[in-house]
Q: What sequence folds into this?
């Protein structure tokens, strides 16, 4: 067995030779070669929308790090823009959207046609698959409906999520209409990614930890379940990332995804006790652990691997790798995971 199929096998719960690893945001600002390509592109959205450049940065971490998977370079907000929400990225200040908060604005949003509106993403996927030539599998991704709703309604990365909860709690039927449109957009978009060549997909619910269990069951879970059900017949493994979701994991594990990605706030062994043996867990080293020295990184990495021994596991950080990270630490982490990782049952 080799790097080429470890990740997909672990996602499906099949035996592997050692624990596979990929890293959220593995193509990003901590890599000098990323910063160079980004400078050449001029701005972040141009980088996302130019298939040759998106392909180039997707491939940058593959050989440098030795990871077992590539993740499409794009952003969760790209399809939101195509729904009719103007988007820009303020330099070093994150995304800025023209917020949509009322029934009329939400009624005017459309479900994008992936081929017509997001062809550059599908072209990037086809190009990346050709360049990878089977070396490692390619993951596609999208945002989960609730997380995308927070960006549509807040117009930026939320802090207290006041506008989001004003809508959810004050006009739930309007919120459900928006969530339904987002779910349809994500389902058709991910299906198109899989048909274009994505071999697994991750659904990022970065802000779902803002919801208590009851609101998770009302405003988040049904829409993720709808997406998972739509994609299941296509056969590509589906990963659901429930960031900061320690209190939601029982429900999150019941959505039909093949794998549940978790943050670092809950030990993997505790998470396993809550979700049962029937799906793969992905995670969950604190991204800030990579600021420690190598012995401390190794201690934490081995503790996670030890806790996962004999169970379905894909190693990852608990959230995206941070810009000040030394790339050599990321390379060392991948090597440690492969060295100390366990064959699955
Ligand atoms: O993982 C990868 O390597 C693939 C690329 C990827 C990006 N964004 C590139 C990016 C992925 C999977 C995403 C997903 C994404 N985008 C999420 C979910 C993941 C998470 O972190 O929870 C979210 C919430 C977004 C929205 C977004 N995009 C924010 C909040 C920001 C600014 C934050 C920051 O770090 O500056 C972005 C910009 C962004 N997306 C960058 C990258 C590499 C930095 C842009 C730059 O080059 O200046």
A:
């Amino acid at each position: 067995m080799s790097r080429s199929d470890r990740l997909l096998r672990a996602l499906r719960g099949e035996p592997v030779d050692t624990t596979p690893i990929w890293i959220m945001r593995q193509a990003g600002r901590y890599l000098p070669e990323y910063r160079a390509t980004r400078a050449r592109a001029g701005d972040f959205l141009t980088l996302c929308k130019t298939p040759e450049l998106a392909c180039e940065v997707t491939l940058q971490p593959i050989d440098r790090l030795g990871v077992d998977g590539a993740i499409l370079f794009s952003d969760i907000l790209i399809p939101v823009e195509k729904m009719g929400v103007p988007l820009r990225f303020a330099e070093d200040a994150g995304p800025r959207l023209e917020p949509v908060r009322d029934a009329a604005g939400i009624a005017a949003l459309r479900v994008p046609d992936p081929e017509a509106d997001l062809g550059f993403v599908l072209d990037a996927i086809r190009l990346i698959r050709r360049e990878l030539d089977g070396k490692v599998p390619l993951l596609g991704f999208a945002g989960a409906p609730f997380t995308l709703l927070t960006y549509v309604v807040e117009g930026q990365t939320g802090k207290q999520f006041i506008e989001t909860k004003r809508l959810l709690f004050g006009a739930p039927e309007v919120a459900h209409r928006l969530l339904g449109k987002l779910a349809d957009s994500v389902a058709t978009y991910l299906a198109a990614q899989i048909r274009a060549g994505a071999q697994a997909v991750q659904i990022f619910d970065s802000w779902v930890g803002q919801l208590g269990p009851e609101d998770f069951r009302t405003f988040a879970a049904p829409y993720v379940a709808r997406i998972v059900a739509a994609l299941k017949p296509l056969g590509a493994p589906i990963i659901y990332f429930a960031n900061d979701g320690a209190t939601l994991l029982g429900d999150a594990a019941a959505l039909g995804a093949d794998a549940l990605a978790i943050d670092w706030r809950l030990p993997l062994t505790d998470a396993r006790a809550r979700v049962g043996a029937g799906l793969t867990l992905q995670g969950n080293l604190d991204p800030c652990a990579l600021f420690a020295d190598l012995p401390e990184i190794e201690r934490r990495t081995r503790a996670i691997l030890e806790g996962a021994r004999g169970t379905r596991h894909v190693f990852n950080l608990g959230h995206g790798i941070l810009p000040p990270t030394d790339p050599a630490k990321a390379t060392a982490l991948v090597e440690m995971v492969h060295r100390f990782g366990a064959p699955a049952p």
In short: The first helix runs from residue 6 to 12. The chain is about 50% helix and 10% strand. The mean pLDDT is 97. The radius of gyration is 19 Å.
